Amino acid sequence: QVQLVESGGGLVQAGGSLRLSCAASGSIFRVNVMGWYRQAPGKQRDLVAFISIGGTTNYVDSVKGRFTISRDNAKNTMYLQMNSLKPEDTAVYYCNAVRPVARVSWGQGTQVTVSS
Questions:
Q1: H helices of 9-101, where?
Q2: For a surface tag, which of 3, 59, 66, 78 has the fewest beta carbons within 10 Å of its beta carbon?
Q3: pLDDT one digit per residue (tens) for the chain, 116 residues
Q4: If we measure between CA atoms, which residue out of 36, 42, 30, 49 comes closest to residue 9?
């Protein structure tokens, strides 16, 4: 069974940067559009960025120009470079396939906390 492991979160001041990593135990990256999701306390889990197999990227408006998603299919790893962080970016960040039928079990996520 494919497992997803997110890492790289932490506590950072507003304006700071973090780089998240998502490692998969299987071949999920090579065959799927992959995304980064986040879930703030009391809110639903939302997709914030996704990347196609060929590397085409898309972002929600709230993170455009600040976040950069990338992937290394050979390493089964995906990244999210987050710059100019804001308190409203505080959430647990997860990775998974974008298509619901392609998703695997959610990992533990990685906590990102941005202080003002």
A1: 28-31
A2: 3
A3: 788 999 999 999 999 999 999 998 877 887 889 999 999 999 999 999 999 988 999 999 999 999 999 999 888 899 999 999 999 999 999 999 999 999 999 999 999 999 99
A4: 36
